[in-house]
């Protein structure tokens, strides 16, 4: 996949930040900084991917990984730009997407317009933007997130927008997908999509019905990405897609992922219609031809994904 990178950031083409352990019992972590396209970079870490837009005004960060790597993430961002972090966007309420919210927000600066009313009062930390359902999840009675990590700017409509560094950012809410608060972020000039956990190259899609997620919503989210993405010549390159987990992708790879999810759904549906139990469906291995790519033996396994699909289709509680 071909990608253009601003000349002043060309040195980041092969940057790998080896992070020293914080204590004798902690394993070494690595954050890999990769150019996506235009003014947008991907920072891959142990908890998933962060998207960073840089420019003449400020820095925009999409997803802040876990609390444990906040210092390392800030150091990686500082290598890309000396400008302050102005906006943080969360694609969901998951801890691997919001764990660094507090640290990155406090390290940033919220820019006020002259003579304008600011409901944030004296707070000058970088703003945290998310769908209103993310705030609801993070501020619920059972949540553990510090209030300083909660979204400060929320939207409840189908779409929202920001304009930073001379580029329009389109925030698209996909209801009932991975959760009920998922946001896709489209960097229009750079032609980059930050997909969050709706799309992954490293595992089967994970959707949480207890937080409003559904299989149909995941497929709808993937179709929304495909509606935006435009492939390059011979279906290579074009729009770059940054997944919640895994490698940089193009439109063809997202289409293949969407097709995989649809095929597995149809296989499980046929077995369900035939009266097969969950155990029988799992034993039939309807994902067997994809397990080499997406099965996570120590994480979200193929059997777990099949069980989630089965219960979703059957209308059963998780």
Describe this structure in words.
The chain is of the alpha/beta class and 318 residues long. The chain has helices at residues 70-80, 95-98, 101-107, 132-138, 215-228, 251-273, 278-284, 291-294, 302-314; strands at residues 16-19, 29-37, 40-45, 48-53, 59-62, 85-89, 127-131, 153-155, 159-164, 167-174, 182-187, 192-200, 240-245. An 8-stranded mixed β-sheet has the order 1-2-3-4-5-6-7-8. A 5-stranded mixed β-sheet has the order 9-10-11-12-13. α5 (215-228) runs antiparallel to α6 and α6 (251-273) crosses α9. The longest helix has 23 residues, at 251-273. The radius of gyration is 20 Å and the shape is globular. It starts with 15 loop residues before the first strand and ends with a helix. Mean pLDDT is 88; it is low at 1-28 and 113-117.
What's the helix count?
Answer: 9
Task: Name the helix and strand elements from N-terminus to C-terminus, one letter apiece.
Answer: EEEEEHEHHEHEEEEEHEHHHH
**Which class best fits the helix and strand makeup?**
alpha/beta
Overall geometry comes to: globular
**Cα-atom radius of gyration:** 20 Å
**Biggest pleated sheet:** 8 strands, mixed
Average of pLDDT: 88
Secondary structure: helix percent = 25-40%
The poorly predicted ranges are 1-28, 113-117
Report how far apart the termini are.
39 Å
Q: Strands of the biggest beta sheet: in what spatial order? A: 1-2-3-4-5-6-7-8
The portion of residues forming beta strands comes to 15-25%
Number of strands: 13
């Amino acid at each position: 996949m071909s990608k253009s990178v601003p000349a002043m950031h060309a040195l980041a083409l092969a940057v790998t930040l080896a992070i020293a352990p914080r204590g004798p019992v902690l394993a070494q972590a690595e954050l890999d900084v990769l150019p996506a396209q235009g003014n947008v970079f991907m920072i891959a870490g142990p908890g998933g991917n962060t998207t960073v837009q840089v420019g003449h005004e400020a820095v925009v960060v999409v997803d802040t990984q876990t609390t444990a790597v906040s210092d390392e993430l800030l150091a990686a961002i500082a290598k890309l730009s000396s400008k302050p972090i102005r906006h943080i966007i969360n694609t969901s309420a998951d801890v691997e997407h919001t764990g660094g919210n507090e640290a990155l927000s406090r390290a940033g600066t919220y820019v006020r317009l002259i003579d304008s009313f600011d409901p944030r009062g004296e707070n000058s930390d970088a703003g945290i933007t998310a769908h209103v359902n993310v705030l609801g999840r993070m501020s619920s009675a059972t949540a553990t997130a510090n209030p300083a990590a909660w979204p400060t700017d929320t939207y409840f409509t189908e779409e929202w927008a920001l304009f930073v560094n001379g580029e329009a950012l389109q925030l698209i809410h996909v209801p009932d997908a991975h959760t009920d608060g998922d946001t896709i972020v489209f960097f229009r000039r750079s032609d980059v999509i930050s997909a969050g956990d709706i799309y992954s190259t490293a595992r089967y899609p994970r959707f949480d019905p207890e937080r409003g997620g559904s299989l149909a919503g995941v497929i709808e989210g993937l179709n929304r990405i495909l509606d935006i993405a435009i492939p390059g010549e011979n279906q290579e390159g074009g729009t770059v897609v940054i997944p919640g987990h895994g490698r940089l992708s193009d439109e063809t790879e997202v289409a293949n992922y969407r097709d995989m999810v649809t095929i597995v759904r149809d296989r499980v549906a046929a077995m369900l219609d035939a009266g097969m139990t969950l155990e029988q469906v799992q034993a039939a291995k309807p994902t067997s031809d994809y397990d080499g790519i997406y099965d996570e033996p120590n994480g979200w396994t193929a059997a777990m994904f099949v069980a989630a699909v089965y219960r979703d289709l059957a209308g059963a509680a998780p």
